[in-house]
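Researcher: Go.
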Amino acid sequence: MAGVVATAEACDSNAALLASGDLRVLQPVFQIYGQCRSFSGPVVTLKVFEDNVLVRELLETRGEGKVLVIDGGGSMRCALIGGNLGQLAHNNGWSGIVVNGCIRDVDEINGCGIGVRALGSHPLKSNKKGHGDKHVPVYIAGVYIAGSFIRDGEWLYADSDGILVSKSELSI
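Model: Structure:
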C-alpha cells in the first residue's frame, strides 16, 4: 500500500465510481478492533458458516498486505476469529480482516498490529469441520451491496469513517 486512503475523501473525489458501482460503501454495521484503525489492500474472500478451519488455512499463508473478507453469514452465535488467529494474520503480513460475523478474545485482538472489523464479539469458539468456500464472491453486511458481490482481487479500504470496496486500486 503506497499510502492511506481516507474513506471520506475517497467518496468525495470519486463520485463517478460511486455512481457506476465500481466503488461501494458497506453499511456501517461493523465494530472496530485491532491496533490498526485504517487498513487497505487487495481482497481475498472466504464464505463459511460457524466454522473457522478455512479461516486458519488462509491466515497461515503469506498475506502480503491483503485483506481477508469473511462472509460468516452474519452469525452472532460463535466467533470466527480469536486472538491466536489475529496474531497469526499480523505475523503473516495480512493488512486486515473483515468478518460478517463475530470475533472473540477482543483484548488480544486489540493488542495485535492488524485492523479487524466484525459485527460484534462472542465468547464461544466456532466449529472445526472445514466447511466453506475460498475465493468466491461474497455478500457482506447482510445485504446485496450496490448491486454487486465483493470479489477476490477487488480493493478494500477501511478507516474510522467506514469501509469501501473498489473494483480497482484507488489513487491517493
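Model: The first strand starts at residue 23 and ends at 25.
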